[in-house]
Design a protein that fits this description.
The protein is an alpha/beta fold. The protein has a domain at 6-162 and 189-221 and 270-284: 3-Layer(aba) Sandwich (Rossmann fold), CATH 3.40.50.720. Helix content is 39%, strand content 17%. Strand 4, helix 5 (128-141) and strand 5 form a beta-alpha-beta unit. The longest helix is centred in the first third of the chain and has 22 residues, at 75-96. The two termini are 31 Å apart. Bound molecules: NADP nicotinamide-adenine-dinucleotide phosphate (NAP). Residues 12, 14-17, 36, 40-42, 62-66, 81, 103, 105, 133, 153-156, 161 line the site of NADP nicotinamide-adenine-dinucleotide phosphate.
Length: 297
C-alpha cells in the first residue's frame, strides 16, 4: 500500500453514505467528490467527460434516487438514475481500467425467503425502486467491466442524512405513543461500518493471490430485527443517554396498518458470510453499531 495514493471518484458526494465514505477515506486513497448539478448521473456525456478528465483508479457510486415511495410514481426517472446511471459508470470504468464499487439494496429481493439471502439467490423486486436498482446491477454485470464490487446493503443510517433513527428520536421527543411496523424483518446498517467495508474490499485488490474477488457482496450489521425492535432499542438508548423522551408506549403494528405507495420486502436479512470470509473480519451487531452512532451523532 505504499507509493502514490489511489485516485477515487466519489459519485453522489452529498448523500448520507457518501459523506461517511469521504470521512473514512484511508491515507492510501485520494478521494474527490462528484455531485449534482455539475455531475448528473442521467447525463452520460457529462459523466464520461468528468471521469476522463479526473482519470480515477476507483469509482465509488453512492448516488441513487432513494425516495422509495416517489419511485412508484416516477419509475422512468428512477430507472435512469438507478438503472442506466450505474451502467454508464461501468462503461467508463471499463474504458479507464478503473474499479467500480456500486451500492445496491435488499429491495432487489421479494422478501419471501425463510433464511438469510445469499448473493446468488433469485432476485424479484416488488417495488419500482427495487426494479430500478436491480437494473443497475444488471447493467454493471453486462457492461464487460470485470473489476466491480456490487455491495448490497439494508436499512442504512448514519450522520448527515434523514434516517429511521433520527425520525424515531424526533417522534419520541414529541409523542407519548409510537406505532411501528413489526412484521418486516431486516437488518439495520450503520454507514460507518459500510464505509469501512467498502475500503476493506478495495484493499483486497492489493493481494495478488486473491482470485474471484469481484462480484456481488451482502453487507449489513450482524443480527436481525423488525422496525419495531429497532425503534424500541433506539428509544431505550435515548433514555439511557438522557435525550428527551416523551414516549411511554410503543405499539407493534402490521404493515397494512401503515400503508405506503411502495411495497417493502417482509423479510430481507442478508447472509454476509461471503464478505466476512473475503476480508477475514467480523461485522459488529446492529445493537453495538447503534450505540456507536449515539456516540458520534
Ligand atoms: N438509505 C437506505 O436505507 C439504503 C438501504 C439500502 C441501500 N441503499 C443504497 O445506498 C446508497 C446510498 O444511499 P444514501 O441513503 O446515502 O442515499 P442519499 O442520502 O439519498 O444520497 C443519494 C445521493 O444521490 C444523489 N443523486 C440522486 N440523483 C442523482 C443524479 N441523477 N446524479 C447524481 N447524483 C444523484 C443525491 O443528490 P442530491 O443531494 O443532489 O439530491 C444524493 O446526494 C444508494 O445506492 C442506496 O440505493 C440505501
Amino acid at each position: 500500500m505504499s507509493g502514490t495514493p489511489r485516485k477515487v471518484a466519489l459519485v453522489g458526494a452529498k448523500g448520507m453514505l457518501a459523506r461517511m465514505v469521504q470521512a473514512s477515506t484511508p491515507p492510501h486513497m485520494a478521494i474527490q467528490g462528484f455531485k449534482r448539478p455539475e455531475f448528473d448521473l442521467t447525463d452520460a456525456d457529462q459523466v464520461r467527460r468528468a471521469m476522463e478528465v479526473f482519470r480515477p483508479d476507483v469509482i465509488i457510486n453512492c448516488s441513487a434516487f432513494t425516495q422509495v415511495d416517489r419511485c412508484e410514481s416516477e419509475e422512468g426517472l428512477a430507472t435512469r438514475v438507478n438503472g442506466d446511471g450505474p451502467g454508464c459508470l461501468a462503461a467508463v470504468a471499463r474504458d479507464l481500467d478503473a474499479t467500480l464499487v456500486h451500492i445496491s439494496t435488499d429491495y432487489v429481493f421479494p422478501g419471501d425467503a425463510e433464511r438469510p439471502y445469499l448473493e446468488g439467490d433469485a432476485t424479484g423486486p416488488i417495488s419500482a425502486y427495487g426494479r430500478s436498482k436491480l437494473k443497475g446491477e444488471q447493467a454493471i454485470r453486462e457492461s464487460g467491466l470485470i473489476k466491480y464490487f456490487i455491495v448490497r446493503t439494508s436499512w442504512l443510517y448514519g450522520p448527515w442524512g434523514k434516517n429511521f433513527v433520527e425520525t424515531i428520536l424526533r417522534l419520541a421527543a414529541e409523542r407519548e405513543e409510537l406505532r411501528i411496523v413489526a412484521d418486516q424483518i431486516g437488518c439495520p446498517t450503520y454507514t460507518g461500518d459500510l464505509a469501512a467495508a467498502i475500503f476493506r474490499l478495495l484493499d483486497l485488490e492489493d493481494d495478488q493471490t486473491a482470485c474471484g474477488l469481484y462480484g456481488i457482496y451482502h453487507f449489513a450489521n450482524e443480527g436481525q430485527c423488525s422496525w419495531y425492535d429497532f425503534a424500541c432499542e433506539i428509544v431505550s438508548l435515548a433514555r439511557q443517554k438522557g435525550l428527551p423522551v416523551k414516549t411511554r408506549r410503543i405499539e407493534p403494528i402490521k404493515t397494512e396498518q401503515f400503508p405506503l405507495p411502495a411495497k417493502r420486502p417482509a423479510y430481507s436479512v442478508f447472509d454476509t458470510k461471503k464478505y466476512k470470509m473475503a476480508v477475514a473480519a467480523s461485522i459488529p451487531s446492529w445493537q453495538k453499531s447503534l450505540s456507536t452512532y449515539f456516540e458520534v451523532r
